[in-house]
Amino acid sequence: xxxxxxxxxxxxxxxTACATAAEKPAATNDVADLGTVLVEGSAISxxxxxxxxxxxxxxxxxxxxxxxxxxxxxxxxxxxNPTDLxxxxxxxxxxxxxxxxxxxxxxxxxxxxxxxxTEPAIDGVLPIGRGAGLFTDPFLLERVEIVKGPVGGLSxxxxxxxxxxxxxGSVNMYLKxxxxxxxxxxxxxxxxxxRHLWRTRGLFDVNxxxxxxxxxxxxxxxxxxxSPAYISQGSQKxxxxxxxxxxxxxxxxxxxESVTFGLKTMFQYTDQPGYIGVPVYRGRPADGWSWRESSCxxxxxxxxxxxxxxxxxxxxxxEYWLLKFGAGMMFSDWExxxxxxxxxxxxxxxxxxxGRWPGGGKYMVSTFSEGSSVSRNYxxxxxxIYTRELPWQGIENTFVAQPDWNWRESSGGFGTPTARYGLLxxxxxxxxxxxxxxxxxxxxxxxxxxxxGAVRYAHMAADAVSPRGGITVRPxxxxxVFGNISQTRTPMLGLRNxxxxxxxxxxxxxxxxxxxxxxxxxxLWLSVSAYRIEQENVPQxxxxxxxxxxxxxxxxxxxxxxxxxxxxxxxxxxxYALNMYTDRxxxxxxxxxxxxxxPENSFSLSTSYRFTRGWMEDVVVGGCYRxxxxxxxxxxxxxxxxxxxxxxxxxxxxxxxxxxSKFGGSKDxxxxxxxxxxxxxxxxxxxxxxxxxxxxxPRTFEIGIRGRF
Length: 709
Description:
The protein is mostly beta strands. Helix content is 6%, strand content 53%. The strands form eight sheets. It has a 23-stranded antiparallel sheet that branches. A five-stranded mixed sheet has the order 1-7-8-5-6.
């Protein structure tokens, strides 16, 4: 299929459909600034945004959406100071990170609502490729939106042979971009230390406007030097620390009253000690292992480099119709050398019974792994957003059409060239109390022929149609009831059955969800929802490495969130997730059918309070508590044994910040102190397989300073 012809035809169809609409200003097109909120003397963090974009590709207040969207704002990220996307996602219950190592099969992907394989995307349309989720520094981001539930009806599935994206949700990153409303420079530095670790971090963000505000340039920069705890003991003791650098220059130009264009870029470089974790046994490292080591050797390294380029154009055709054009290129290169653990099925019973390998060795088998990969992602899209008010009963209609094209490949045996041609059609109708959303997405996939070992795979093509629908009923301003039905269909190309066939039929994940949102106070919302996701036709590998499309599983649960401002000087974000998983390929009554593949219960509570009187005036105190219940270690996602589990964990962080004006300095500079993992909890934060489990950081003390001028 010719890409240009496809895009042109789809764009023409979208424009024709929109041109028939009547004309009315489009409130959903207003841009929401989610940047830093400054208060005289000190900043109070804002955890709830005015609008979100990832659920519909239009800017909508979160209380009006028929889907659940969790948002981590720039204020939240600044306060908690995570160093990569992996660490940031740990603050959201119901998300699992799957192992913080380049050696895992799909590094930097996340499971949401029990569905695995979600790959983060920039602005919801450009997948960032293998590994980038481990190294993207959140300081480069304005916000992160996590859309819950199957999202194939909006952004489509990945369709690669080793990445079944879109079954449980999406992680959408919005880069900091040039702004026309401010000339400002922000700087931030911090030092942290704990038992077996230290970190030094420098951050810089400058935004400048020129030519009477028609040109804006922004340059965020990060530098991070880190000696992790896992190189303090064992065979990796004394390894060279981690160093990571990133910058994301961008510019924007107002070419006229109706046209704005710009360019976003991102450069990343990380060189860190290799890490693959330790085996778990009854919630702790197995016999012979400590919390602060791994199987890697002193000279094992993982090096990651990436470059992103994103030109874009916004054209306000008239006061009713907005056209957005975008393109993107994400290039990633990584290399690693690690000593990798292996599991021996023949002698597994002894390990499961005693927590040690036969012969007293730490691993049954330990070998050396070395690899490299280059990943390339390209995309082009045109998005048409048209809002009108119908001439009767005050009905407002917003129609979105988006043709897009994505092409991706990875070397090193991790993905042959695959192209995806997609077309999204979505309509939202608002009438009185009711807002109804409906949409459908069509995707055509093509994978190039390739050879793997002695097997030749022919050119493959497949199609998928993913629908979605939802409704929100809001009879009063403080109450909204919502529900949705959504589905993702994605073919897993490149797999081979035992009979030599290469199936192309897509797997499908279907969600049913209902919930209610209540506002007990101004700018504070409580949301409660329940969901059920049925996934079918999933590729399952047999003992010979061949695949059959007969996998079936169910994820069901509930989520609660309380987000916003309790008072003018007090903000909160509390989230709870209940998730229950069923592997329907396992016989009823057999252990492994219903088990805690992920924590059944997880909870987080973050809050920030600014004192307004007395000697503590303008001092801000913050805290965060995170809980994860027991879960089982797995092998390729399957249950292995009752003794192989991760114990419940409780992690507490505290922080205090105060303006330097309290000491006679400038009110634009703030001094901060923090303690992470206050109680020194020993826990595992993520895992690939049960014998590759990665420990959380020990108690860490931090001091920092930030300012603006």
